Write a sequence for this structure.
């Protein structure tokens, strides 16, 4: 059985070695998040320096398959967070949303109106 989860994502352009969290607004709706699109597929790391709430970071490869999830990343920390695998996209959602929707390695994503 195929499961479909929908949500609204803001798109962020990313450059540099480590990305800062997009800092979803405190109390953001569970079906909202931020999509980071990187120009290359490589290992990317995020920190949560100015992020006021815990987030799940979902890393996807160029085929938009999940390669790993950092669950419940603690807010306001500078620890680099990565899954240790190459990714092209990272989706930030409120902490617990990845598990609530059974998102894990191998889960496929489809983005509407997002270029390859």
């Amino acid at each position: 059985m195929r499961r479909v989860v929908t949500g609204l994502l803001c798109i962020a352009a990313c450059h540099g070695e480590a990305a800062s969290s997009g800092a979803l607004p405190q109390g953001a709706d569970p079906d909202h998040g931020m999509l980071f699109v990187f120009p290359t597929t490589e290992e990317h790391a995020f920190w949560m320096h100015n992020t006021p709430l815990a987030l799940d970071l979902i890393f996807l490869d160029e085929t938009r398959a999940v390669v790993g999830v950092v669950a419940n990343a603690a807010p306001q920390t500078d620890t680099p967070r990565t899954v240790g695998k190459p990714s092209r996209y990272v989706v930030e959602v409120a902490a617990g949303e990845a598990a609530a929707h059974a998102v894990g390695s191998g889960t496929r994503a489809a983005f509407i109106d997002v270029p390859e």
